[in-house]
Amino acid sequence: MYQPKAEDKFTFGLWTIGNVGRDPFGAPVRGELSPAEIVRILGEVGAWGVNFHDNDLVPIDASPAEADKIKAEFKKALDDTGVVVPMATTNLFYDPVFRDGAFTSNDPKVRAYARQKTMRAMDLGAEFGAKVYVFWGGREGTETDAGKSALDAGKWFREALNFLCEYNIDQDYGYKFALEAKPNEPRGDIYLPTTGAMLGFITTLDHPEMVGVNPEVAHETMAGLNFMHAVAQAWDAGKLFHIDLNDQKIGRYDQDFRFGAENIKQSFFLVKFLEDVGYSSSRHFDAHAYRPADLADVKEFAKGCMRTYLILKEKAQQFKEDAEIQELLAEITADDGSMAPFFGKYSADKAKALKAHTFDRAAMAQRGQPYEKLDQLVFELLMGVR
């Protein structure tokens, strides 16, 4: 039971399985894996896809001959395992050149280089069949607002995305762009810090139809927000192009825990939402194994992410089939139809009738909602006692 299938579209990044366990206070604890080795591990544990930053696959200073060799080995591993590449992205945060940002750097040479690097990375992703392209602006922000105009930064970011949308069209790559929000880390403040901010920004672009979002559990949770609500807003806007699944404690650094490792109820309501609305794109696990893990435990980490999703998917189905839960929901959402004439599209007659209607405010205020009972039933369902 709970074995992943291709139709689940479970994916991992090269940087997730390949994470060596380095942190700001400690050196690596695991050896480096080649991209081809990571693909073979993903094939072994049953993942559908692998995603990459440009320099996860090809080091930034690799020679053309070295790049060709790496890509050939990577392609062979993909062919041997059946693992696919649905998403690609650019590393615009690690190299020292991006210390003040990439698309929003005060240095126009850096801004131009960031565009060049992204175009080349888009070429690389397209070479392996990627159709979603993610933008995470990890350095697009400030530690002090004394040295950079937020208005200028927004303008530069917009110009860069407009330029790259045109490149996407010109090359006929067919990418959907997905913007990934994060409130802070590694910058003190990152521009466009939430999914809602990204959705507002997208409307200002030349090709808003081409651009959506890639919300991440940890990033919204860091700021103490309800991640499922952000996902629902993105879905309602038709902009949920990709999603990053992991887990996180509120208020901590970006922990990237195994999916479901920390907030079981939050993870359940997220899975339930995705399954209820019929989300069909990649379910990408942007997470890392605990630092003490060895390679064998890294494999268990990957299996655990997928297994947890499938367990919660089963729980979501049980929620639908639980008679007592459904009876409570029917009670909570009961509608006798008397208000139907006041809803729907506006008309002058409808507005006049609504203004004239007499409501029994006191009676309405006395109506309780059995949320305590319902929430307890959800807890018991998740604990396996229903």
Instruction: Give the strand order, joined by hyphens, for the main sheet.
Output: 8-6-4-3-2-1-10-9
Structural class per helix/strand content? alpha/beta
Strand content: 5-15%
Number of domains: 2
- Helical proportion, percent range: 40-55%
Tell me the CATH superfamily of the largest domain: Divalent-metal-dependent TIM barrel enzymes
Give the termini separation.
19 Å
Architecture blueprint of SSEs:
Elements: E1 10-13, H1 14-17, H2 35-45, E2 49-53, H3 54-57, H4 64-81, E3 87-89, H5 108-127, E4 132-136, E5 141-142, H6 150-171, E6 176-180, E7 189-190, H7 195-202, E8 211-213, H8 217-222, H9 227-236, E9 244-245, H10 264-277, E10 283-285, H11 295-321, H12 323-332, H13 348-356, H14 361-365, H15 371-382
Parallel strand pairs: 1-2, 1-10, 2-3, 3-4, 4-6, 6-8, 9-10
Antiparallel strand pairs: 5-7
Helix pairs in contact: 2-4, 5-6, 9-10, 10-11, 12-15
Describe this structure as you would to a colleague.
It is a single chain. With 386 residues, the protein is an alpha/beta fold. It has 2 domains: 316 residues, Divalent-metal-dependent TIM barrel enzymes (TIM Barrel); 60 residues, no CATH class. The protein is built from 15 helices and 10 strands. The strands form 2 sheets. It has an 8-stranded parallel sheet. Strands 5-7 form a two-stranded antiparallel ribbon. Strand 3, helix 5 and strand 4 form a beta-alpha-beta unit. It is globular, with a radius of gyration of 23 Å. 38% of the residues are buried. The model has no long low-confidence stretch (mean pLDDT 98).
